Amino acid sequence: MNLLFKEDLLQFVWQYKLLGSAPLKTVSGKELQVISPGALNADSGPDFFNAKIRLNNITLAGNIEIHLRSSDWLKHGHQHDTSYNTIILHVVYWHDLQVQQNNDFNVDVLELKNHIPQHTILHYRELMQNKTRIPCASQLKQVNDTVFSTWLERLAVERLELKVKRIEGYYKLTGRNYVQTFYLCLFRNFGFKVNAEPFELLGKHLPVQLLLKHADNLLQLESLLLGTAGLLDEQFEDAYILKLQNEFEFLRHKYGLVPLSKNLFKFSRLRPANFPDLRLAQFAALIHEQTRLFTFPHRFTNYEELIKAFHAEVHPYWKNHYKPGGDAQLKQSSLGIQSIENILINTFAPFFLFYSKQVAQPEYLNHALDLLSRCKFEDNARTRLFSAKQAVLVSAANSQALLQLLDGYCSKKRCLRCGIGYHILKNV
Question: What is the pLDDT of residue 331?
Fold first, then answer.
């Protein structure tokens, strides 16, 4: 028998008890009732732990193993693994071999080939063979809005959890330094997508404690940031930039700073408002005006307060220059609302979840989700793929969840682990 589906479909059917209405009987003829399918095991060992079944009125509790064919038991080498001696049921689609190990330990076999509706299998194949970026795109509009929104709520937290992993890496790297950890998160975000990596590298070269020593002097902050980035390493005529160069020469020798190569920073295809020089000037202004934001970031949980904090005023020079020596009349030299919300989404929300775990204060997860719900929906090429559900897509919590759905499920064809895929397959 050529089975055109994978074992994960059988796991899905077993997990959600989608076995039709016909009475279940094992290969040996025993009546079977599934009381609890157990917990799916994503690691090595039996597929489901702590299941509970009833065989001919005898209740059994234990583990379940699932295969496409009974012979897969030998193919997978379970005969050499004693952890499979204690299973209470062997579930297969097609029973093609009586396994000696099952005989020795009185393990019954349940064959599913007559218990899974053919249209469920066909629909599964359609999803798996679909070439579009969203396998269920054609069915998405029919998915109940409440089902869709409930799944997105879970995915929003799931995406935050992924971002927390980077923060935990910073925390370990900095020797559990809370302030430097937040600083690295924020500094990387200030580079936005194009210059995130060089901004993170600059943050590691220029610790926040050094910048905080000069927080009351905007000129020194700019000289430290631009100078260490290598962006002052040219001949300039502007009086203000010459001041920055002179100041940096003094601070460079005082602290033993080694500038990065300016070639690390990208300018190509960027609007002047996104040039790294201006971003560093904005970062300097933020430290200058909002020192507490760097020392006590967990106290800035209010959306309006954060928006106000990030409207820090840059030095007047940057209102007429987008880079040292580059003349331009900028319409806006401070961060715009879209950039600020990007920072709230990608720095503050995940940092609050990280902080929640570190200090065991679950309310900070609520702060994170509240920030995401206050920020605007991120309208881009990827989130537009889900335009069929645009009526319920209203905030960044939704757009972040969609990105997690696309990256973590749709692109990997994890339809059977997706709340939307479950809803579609269950209701076919």
Answer: 61
* Residue at token pair 């580079």: 191
With pLDDT > 70 as the criterion, what percentage of the chain qualifies?
97
Task: Tell me the torsion sign for CA atoms 11, 16, 18, 23.
Answer: positive
Whether 41 and 87 have beta carbons less than 8 Å apart is answered as no
Q: State how far the Cα of 78 lies from the Cα of 209, in Å rounded to an integer.
A: 56
- CA distances (Å), origin 224, targets 186, 215, 275, 307: 17, 11, 17, 26
207 exposure class (CB count in 10 Å sphere: 0-12, 13-18, 19+)? middle
- In this model, does residue 22 exceed pLDDT 80? yes
What is the rounded distance in angstroms from the CA atom of residue 171 to the CA atom of residue 181?
A: 5
Structural domain boundaries in the chain: 7-116, 118-173+349-428, 178-335
Q: What's the pLDDT tens digit per position in 300-328?
A: 999 999 999 999 999 999 988 888 877 66
At 336 the three-state DSSP class reads: coil
CA distance 111 to 104: 19
184 SS3 class: helix
State the burial class of residue 60 (Cβ atoms within 10 Å of its Cβ: 0-12, 13-18, 19+): middle
Both tokens of 157, joined, read 């937290």
Q: How far apart are alpha carbons 40 and 142 in whole angstroms?
A: 28
pLDDT interval class at 46 (50, 70, 90): very high
pLDDT in tens, 160-206: 999 999 999 999 999 999 999 999 999 999 999 999 999 999 999 99
* 3-class DSSP assignment, residue 32: strand
Please give the Cα distance from 196 to 335 (Å, whole number).
Answer: 16
Question: Do you know the residue count of the chain?
Answer: 428
For 112-177, the three-class secondary structure string (H helix, E strand, C coil) is CCCCCCHHHHHHHHHHHHCCCCCCCHHHHHHCCHHHHHHHHHHHHHHHHHHHHHHHHHHHHHCCCC
